[in-house]
Amino acid sequence: MTLYVIGIGLYDEKDITLRGLEAVKSCDEIYLEHYTSILGVNVKALEKLYGKTVQIASRDLVEREAEEKLLLSAKKKDIALLIVGDVFGATTHTDLQLRAKELGIEFQAIFNASVMNAIGVVGLELYKYGKTTSIVFPDNNWLPSAPYDVIALNQEHGLHTLCLLDIKVAESNLEDIKKGINKPQPPRYMTVEEGLEVLLRLEREKGKKIITKETLVVGVARLGHPDMLIVSGTVAELLITDFGEPLHSLVVPGKLHHIEEEALANL
Amino acid sequence: MTLYVIGIGLYDEKDITLRGLEAVKSCDEIYLEHYTSILGVNVKALEKLYGKTVQIASRDLVEREAEEKLLLSAKKKDIALLIVGDVFGATTHTDLQLRAKELGIEFQAIFNASVMNAIGVVGLELYKYGKTTSIVFPDNNWLPSAPYDVIALNQEHGLHTLCLLDIKVAESNLEDIKKGINKPQPPRYMTVEEGLEVLLRLEREKGKKIITKETLVVGVARLGHPDMLIVSGTVAELLITDFGEPLHSLVVPGKLHHIEEEALANL
Predict the structure, then answer these.
(1) How far is B120 from B228, CA to CA, in rounded Å?
(2) What is the domain count for chain A?
(3) Chain segment B78-137, per-residue pLDDT in tens
(4) In angstroms, what separates the C-alpha of A21 from chain B's closest C-alpha?
């Protein structure tokens, strides 16, 4: 039997491809991975379109219980794992593919749009982006400098930087873990403002003048949704812009071509 | 009325999203842009699914006659421009969006997978790719060094490089142009082998030991098609690998994580 890993796109049930929908309809069990991104609709909308029950797959299920729940099931049944956006945004699915191969299970990926290419809607050319970075919530004052270093490197070469903003879903807090309590916290999605605050804090520590209040940045909220919001402006301006509901992302432009300038001016 | 620019994915008529199909079915005129990528099926397969006529849009139509054919038509009718892969792979569509806005025409992009994110199937993490580069056919011995320089920069920072390989569709040759003859040449699609030959020639000129016969590279043919072929090996090995029909792409890996190593070993 087959383990289908299917990208379902960025907004709602209609963003799946015909190929994806055909595969889902042929499957015996359907899981939706929901800890690395979120859809603009709830699971019921998917279930209605598919005519099938969709189970929520936690990070634990995909990363730790994959063998039992997904892979061994896929020996007897056709299983679909739905991914918001595209299949290969995270290592996990490459790992899943490797483990499927080891166990002699057919693995089929069905592609879709993800933030990695849909970010092109902002108007900056995709081939001029350098390495992508992630900005994470500061944890006990531990603040990784990677995003700052990546932006600095990309800027040096005139390249744009896509900054993915942290998502914490069903994670326990450190105090609870120390006490042996397993109590998931409410989900947290980093806002453009919080992302910029992290970058400004790194700027204060590192002082290379990579991100100042005057730096041009582009904030994106709800990429691919009907109420998508894209705002280009200085860091100071974006810090006081309300981007509303998650997910948010941030782009730090590099050297701009005139069409790119025009595109940002016309957002 | 609306100008819909719709990504139709990488392989066949079933790679369109439900949202994309709904839009196409509502349109009065449908154009397929076919000079930056190719599908695995012909236009007839699309027409059969859509129940509509699909016109081939040349580069001239999209870049030079866009105003007349696409934008002014979209003042009176709903127009769909179908793009193999995704909408925002090339500047042109950002340009089209800007011109639509100037003319007060509604513009709607419908996302899909493109080589820029589907390349994740190779098993190298997307966020560890640096700038993307294009390798073009040498023209009258003029050989741009950009791909070599981009790979060198990415390698220096441990980043992977996606190399898009040249496509020439319906272009005239220089001799004919000089004589004032407008005779389109048959399409040419650069192979993995030809791409590697260009890189080796740049290596001989520049001599930084970025691409040698021993460098590990990954060749990809027909990404997202049922007969997709991904081969990882040294340049010497890939030079004698027959990748078959177009399109081909090339990845030069940077520093490998152990999962990435395992993924390449299991191709």
Answers:
(1) 13
(2) 2
(3) 999 999 999 987 667 888 999 999 999 999 999 999 999 999 999 999 999 999 999 999
(4) 9
Is B133 part of the contact surface with chain A (CB cutoff 8 Å)? Answer: yes
Q: Which residues are paired to A188 by β-bridges? A: A168
Q: What are the φ/ψ torsions at residue A247 (nearest 5 degrees)?
A: -85, 150
Which residues of chain A are under the pLDDT cut of 70?
90-91
User: What would the pLDDT profile of A109-148 be if each residue is shown by its tens digit?
Assistant: 999 999 999 999 999 999 999 999 999 999 877 889 999 9
Q: Which two tokens stand for residue A160?
A: 């744009």
Residue listed under structure tokens 């190929």: A19
Domain check: are B90 and B141 in the same one?
no
What gap in Å lies between CA B118 and CA A223, rounded to an integer? 18
End position of a domain, from candidates B113, B131, B158: B113
- Rounded-to-integer distance, Cα B98 and Cα B101, Å: 5
Do the beta carbons of residue A35 and residue A140 sit within 8 Å?
no
On chain A, the residues whose CB falls within 8 A of the CB of B121 are 87-88, 109, 111
Q: Does A191 touch chain B (CB under 8 A)?
A: no
Query: What residue type is assigned to position A14 of the chain?
Result: K
Q: Does residue B225 share a domain with residue B155? A: yes
Interface membership of A89 toward B (CB under 8 Å) = yes
- Out of B113, B136, B167, pick the residue that ends a domain: B113
Q: What is the CATH number of the domain that holds B14?
A: 3.40.1010.10
ipTM for the predicted complex: 0.94
B244: left (phi over 0), alpha (psi -120 to 50) or beta: left
For residue A14, the chain B residues in CB contact (below 8 A) are 17-19, 22
Mutate to test the interface with B, among A93, A117, A225, A260 (most CBs of B within 10 A): A117
Does the distance separating the beta carbons of B126 and A116 come in below 8 Å?
yes
| Residues B220-232: tens digit of each pLDDT | 999 999 999 999 9
Q: Which domain holds residue A140?
A: 116-265
